[in-house]
Amino acid sequence: MNKFIRYVQGMMLLLTLAASGCTQAGENESSGGNMRGYNHVPGQTVNRFSVNGYGGTLTGNICCVMLPDKWRPGLIAHVEWEVDPQTAPVFPGYSDRTKFLAWKKQVEGSYQRHSADVEIPQYDKSGGLDVHFLPCNKVKVYAGIDGFGSPLYPIKEPMNMKEPASCPK
Fold this sequence. Notes:
This protein is an alpha+beta fold and 169 residues long. It has a domain at 26-142. It contains two helices and eight strands, in the order αβββββαβββ. It has helices spanning 2-20, 97-109, and strands at residues 30-39, 45-51, 54-56, 62-68, 76-84, 112-119, 129-134, 138-142. The N and C termini lie far apart (71 Å). The relative contact order is 0.18.
């Protein structure tokens, strides 16, 4: 009988954890949601990014980022990201380990790290967080339920934007 009770308790714990997933509201009325990244600048790769310490990539939805259920003025997203400007020399292959390690060091040394504090625009209901990487190391975010490209989506910049010859300071 003792094994059966432990089994039932374990199953209840698993069901509770599974049901909570990324969307359980905490005591501060926040919920988790997926993060999505959009790179608007061809010719550079966003290797990875994080928002308020929650990590992401540009490979689709990443779970999870915590957001208040109700928007409030002054809501800020601290975004950190790493860019590969793709200025590396030709890949030497793996056969000569010394050449490969030198190439790898040069590639990783060209990565650029950036950060920005971005105000989160007003939303009625959180739909996760979209992070848009724009020319000149600018970033915009959106946390509502409208999808990128829909008429109500507030970020209107096109994909495939060109990096200008010089960026404003």
